[in-house]
Amino acid sequence: MRITKDPEERRKEIIQTALKLFLKKGYAHTAVSEIVKNINVAQGTFYHYFKSKEDILDAIIETYITSILDEIETVAGDKNLTALEKLEQISYAQLRVNQRFNMNLHSIKGVDIHERLIAQVVKKIVPIMADIVSEGAKAGVFNVKYPLVATEIFMVAGNMLFDPGIFNWNKSELETRVDILIELMESTFGVRKGSFSFYKKLMTGGREIKGE
Amino acid sequence: MRITKDPEERRKEIIQTALKLFLKKGYAHTAVSEIVKNINVAQGTFYHYFKSKEDILDAIIETYITSILDEIETVAGDKNLTALEKLEQISYAQLRVNQRFNMNLHSIKGVDIHERLIAQVVKKIVPIMADIVSEGAKAGVFNVKYPLVATEIFMVAGNMLFDPGIFNWNKSELETRVDILIELMESTFGVRKGSFSFYKKLMTGGREIKGE
Amino acid sequence: MRITKDPEERRKEIIQTALKLFLKKGYAHTAVSEIVKNINVAQGTFYHYFKSKEDILDAIIETYITSILDEIETVAGDKNLTALEKLEQISYAQLRVNQRFNMNLHSIKGVDIHERLIAQVVKKIVPIMADIVSEGAKAGVFNVKYPLVATEIFMVAGNMLFDPGIFNWNKSELETRVDILIELMESTFGVRKGSFSFYKKLMTGGREIKGE
Amino acid sequence: MRITKDPEERRKEIIQTALKLFLKKGYAHTAVSEIVKNINVAQGTFYHYFKSKEDILDAIIETYITSILDEIETVAGDKNLTALEKLEQISYAQLRVNQRFNMNLHSIKGVDIHERLIAQVVKKIVPIMADIVSEGAKAGVFNVKYPLVATEIFMVAGNMLFDPGIFNWNKSELETRVDILIELMESTFGVRKGSFSFYKKLMTGGREIKGE
DNA sequence: AATGAATGAGTATTCATTCAT
DNA sequence: TATGAATGAATACTCATTCAT
Predict the structure, then answer these.
(1) Using CB atoms, which residue from B115, B149, B177 is nearest to A149?
(2) Most CB contacts within 10 A, which of A13, A37, C7, D17?
(3) C-beta atoms surrounding D47 within 10 Å
(4) How far is it, in rounded angstroms, from Cα A39 to Cα A14?
(5) Are residues B155 and B82 in the same domain?
(6) How distant is the Cα of C39 from the closest Cα of chain D, in angstroms?
């Protein structure tokens, strides 16, 4: 039987399913046939929406980054928010998108794709964050010499270190590291202690933590 | 024609070749047939030494980590070296092993394997480095609250940020980042400025830097 | 060039071809590549229809048994036939199916598959025959104490003894054995001499008998 | 380390091991490498004793048949035994050899080789049994028209029907069939009821019977 | 007699992609 | 837009056999 859907809808459905499988089993180990089986669509349908399997990878990454950028956009320009509040909002935005994309569920097999996402985050999102930091520096709340690179370093470290597919810390190991990372960030960025505590949610967010 | 070699030799030969190809084209895109063709051995020979393609991946990583650990071993226990000198020696050791394994040549396709190596480095090498840092702290040369996690953070960040397969900075972008990372490390670890300058070699080491 | 067929048709085509080859060369010595080459289809097509090489074996056996059962079905329930006539019809049905499946052409290499077929025949077909025998016993035409087991014994013996892949009797050896087997069956089942002469066709049926 | 053994011993050891594996996993699914691993011998050693894998199959069958023939030999010529006693002794001999060769342990995978053994039994052992039957007929104890073929039929039927790799009857199904087969044999061979009860041991011999 | 490294042909299976309907 | 049958190249892995020591 043939089910017709709104193309935009279909496209999103395929992307979501593909990402879910890519994160679970890795890009290489996910067959196109599996993606379409998951949504009860013919193999050919996939190729209506995407030129190739490689193609959907780009689409996924673009969708992910765009989603975050969309959420961030308004925040960044908001004159009523302090720099710290902006960063907080951004971290929440990222958390929301991560959860929407099931970013937390991925296994060691899905490292490859998570990898590419981090790279894009550094290239597209980090500069925006760095601008906000600079802005905060002008306001005297931040005190950091190299906002951009410092942000790059901590974003990369945080994303890798707390990637459940790469390192699997137990509950206390994880908490220790999150706390320390935040403390180091606060001192590096020259903000008051506790200013970055909101990052805790993002870093441990939605994660199932292995028992005590 | 049939060429028999010392098994230990053969094994190493296969590992070296496999790693070279994995870094160049990625694990998934390297066929076993290609590995053996490179050393003029029959495909069966590969399976005489390794249970599967997956199996050699583990062997490669183990060999790499073991190589570094071997080089480090004597350094770590040497009573005549200061903590800083030890770290410097370790960074050289790592550099040497990297060069021996052609670690610098890898392309974006080789991300997957580089990934696994970072994880192992953090698990196996970082603790040793952290011990040395603690030792240096006792001697009053270092001043850092959380040696282990701080080392983890900077090792991960450095390995990712300067991984040519993930980020391809141009010459000046790269230099800027290396310098800043070192500066941040020095301040985080509470050492005198310039103490970590030896890291520059490791971080840019042997790399072909694009343009300029 | 791409030739699309009715899936049911294709499936049958593959089964027929596979069986032909399995009987000729044996299951183990028949490559999937050979099967598809025989019908000018891509190797992928095979796997579109069957999960594995093992899978088609099951399909073949099921198809064979089902074919016979289909032919038998109407006969078994026919009120106008005597028990003897039913058995005769069944033996013809079996002969027809055997010929349709080229069952007679198989060589020593095809023993493995023939084996599995015998087992299924005993499990699925023999009980039906035994029922008919019991029915005939009530009518006073048969006189046998253990219809089921007796049928099992003679079916197994007949199928094995006259399996050209296992025993290759010459013409006279074969005839002797067929005649004697029938005579023993008649006495065992308590029927009049000659009642089972129709079995001769089935047992030697379509066989190329090695010259006198 | 290199262990030298009496060649005859080694040969037997290899044959035993090969048969054990062939019966368990089937000829096709048993690798030569596996056979040698089981007895801690190098691959090359296998080829010292046997020309090929096919070759050992013949050796196994020959050894099996020869073993039985050896045991039978003296019995067949013994003037002090009646025909019935001879058959009984033969059935015991066969049972002993079967047990020595673990004939009872084989699975569905080992059907292929069991098959070939049956064929050889019919060709080599059955004629001897038939001679004894004829002899017994002269003595008036047997009364059968076609000793050879009748023996063939019942030997084949018995071997197949009670082959645990082909049919897996439960305890009562098995007993029923054994009893009936014996009864039919007795009437076919014209011997007194109970004369063949010794066959029961051979037919169910050493078998692990599935619970009640 | 024994070793075990090396061979290499053989093969099942996967899977991205195409295309006629 | 959607289908799903068909494609066919790609590839990991097996295994009987050989051979130099």
Answers:
(1) B177
(2) D17
(3) 14
(4) 8
(5) yes
(6) 27
CA of B10: nearest nucleotide by C1' is E5
CA distance C163 to C204: 10
Kindly give the parts of chain C with pLDDT less than 50: 208-212
Task: Return the higher-pLDDT residue of A89 and A166.
Answer: A89
- C15, C31, C50 — which closes off a domain? C50
Q: Same structural domain for residues C24 and C101?
A: no
Give the tens place of pLDDT for each residue, B82-117. Answer: 999 999 999 999 999 988 888 776 776 777 788 888
What whole-number distance in Å separates Cα of residue D48 and Cα of residue C143? Answer: 60
B1: in domain: no
Identify the residues numbered 161 to 190 in chain B whose C-beta atom is closer than 7 Å to any atom of strand F. Answer: none
Q: How many domains, in total, are found in chain D?
A: 2
Nucleotides of chain E within 7 Å of a protein C-beta? 1-21
Residue D138: domain span: 59-203
Instruction: Give chain B's contact residues with A (Cβ, < 8 Å).
Output: 28, 111-112, 115, 118-119, 122, 145-146, 149-150, 152-154, 156-157, 160-161, 166-167, 176-177, 180-181, 183-184, 188
Backbone angles phi, psi at A170, to 5 degrees: -85, 180
pTM value is: 0.88
Question: Does the beta-carbon distance from B177 to A122 stay under 8 Å?
Answer: no
Q: pLDDT value at position A1?
A: 61
C52-68 pLDDT per residue, tens: 999 999 999 999 999 99
C175: its two tokens: 């005839």
Mind listing the pLDDT tens digit for each residue in B44-81? Answer: 999 999 999 999 999 999 999 999 999 998 899 999 99
Residue nearest to nucleotide F10 (CA to C1'): B31
- Across the interface, of D149, D176, D180, the residue whose CB is closest to C180 is D149
Can you tell me whether residue C63 is helix, strand or coil?
A: helix
Query: Residue B172 — φ and ψ, nearest 5°?
Result: -75, -40
CA C104 → C1' E20, Å?
40
